[in-house]
Design brief:
Elements (H helix, E strand, L loop, with lengths): L1 H4 L17 H7 L1 H7 L13
């Protein structure tokens, strides 16, 4: 959980509850929407289960 707690959290919850990304806009615009409006959003590039 130490890693998860370091994720950028200032955007808050996703819309419409919070100031975070709007799922409908992500569906329409894809990563361009996120990159233009939420530049500090963290991504998980790869996950491994052992």
């Amino acid at each position: 959980m130490d890693t998860v707690e370091r994720f950028y959290s200032s955007y808050g919850e996703m819309a419409p509850r919070g100031q975070g990304p709007d799922p409908s806009q992500i569906e329409v615009q894809g990563n361009a929407y996120i990159e233009n409006h939420f530049a500090r959003l963290d991504y998980i590039n790869r996950a491994t289960i052992q």
